[in-house]
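User: I'm writing a tutorial on reading structure tokens. Could you give me a worked example: one chain, its sequence, then its tokens, then a sentence or two explaining what the tokens reveal?
Assistant: Sure. Here is the example chain.
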Amino acid sequence: MASPGHLAPGLWRHPDDRAKDYLDLNYWVELAKFLEEAKFHGVFFADVLGIYDVYHGPENIGPALKGPAQFPIADPSLLVGAMAYATKSLSFGVTASTTYESPYTLARKFSALDHLSHGRVGWNVVTSYLDHAAKCFGLDEQIPHDERYKRAEEFMEVTYKLWEGSWQDDAVIKDRENGVFTDPEKVRKINHKGKYFSCAGPNLIEPSPQRTPFIFQAGASSSGKAFAVRHAEAMFLPGTEPEKTKKVVDDIRKSNAEQGRDPSTLKLLAGLLVIIDETDEKAQAKYQEMLQYADLEGTGALFGGWTGTDLSAFADDEDFAFKKVGGIQSIIETWSRTIPGSKGIKWTKKRVLQEMAVSGIHAKVIGSPTTVADELQRWIDVSGVDGFNLSYAHSPGTFKDMVKYLWPELKKRGVLQEEYAVPGGTTRENYLGDGQGPRLRAGHPATAYVWKST
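And here are its predicted structure tokens:
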């Protein structure tokens, strides 16, 4: 996230953190080079367009500012050009909202990024969820949840028409002799008129290597899952236990096939934070050190934004294991089963916030290289996910620890990516790894709008 505080408010103070330098392009370029050298598939940029203002609220931005908790925050798309220029194979997933963007301008932006990165860009499609964002975009309140997804469906249709159906591949001919840059017969308007959008088109820029950027999505609700199954090529899954995540995986695979898509064209990724050192004891000590920097008020701000629940309204000694508070009880049940020594403890407000302080509601894996590798393998074996969206407590420290301690163990087991599927290739080629090139796979809804060259 292009912010000094993502999921771990307060960790900007950690000596191994440089995320506080989020406005220094050198930081981002150095991070991109490091991640590519370590053969990470890509960098995923989460983003929000409003402020977490529920905690100690209503409409209190103080805790988010002090933490900080995803505020201040810069536009991540502006970083991609420099990071792409400094790398050859690393991909970049950029979040953009179908609720507050225009499909016409978004199509141009992602086409330009895809050109400049030689096809190494993905779009994380979100509908946005913060009331504060709605008010900043001129609305009195958020558009209702299911309505946002209906709007998003038409948004996708417009962008697909612009990317896939307004230019033929060979439209740009650069004919010096006859003075023709683009053949007018190979560019057309889309003339879309729908319930939510009207767009004449065409796209303002010629087809990029992927045309449609690789599509990421994270849908937890029924509407969100249905949307992801239809459009996504990689999906971020909720869940802190592989056994429960397996049910989500199985359901998505089944729905994906029913949509007429090859299940292998939708990669499923679990969100995890890895805290690692030479031994389990050292890793636990490292985690305890991180907690000394954590800002629990900032964590409260994040939780309030995610769930709409203001934890400041509850007494300090209340046991949340027995409170019917949105977003808490099921998480506490999971923690009680999976965190050593937590059975029978009192889940007070401070204890709940502490457990979320460095990873949000993502699962944490803490331990030695063997312990962490075993748990990652268990996630793969039990849940059936294809891989992981690895978060950070502090950056680049968390990533450097993984490369130093975890990578050798994964390499020894033969499960570490030691080279990109297509060095210098596109996001679609390197994430799907199926040898079918940079364009959309058969069965994706955008292929219905492809305008083939004649």
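What the tokens reveal: The longest strand covers residues 267-276. The longest helix spans residues 145-165.
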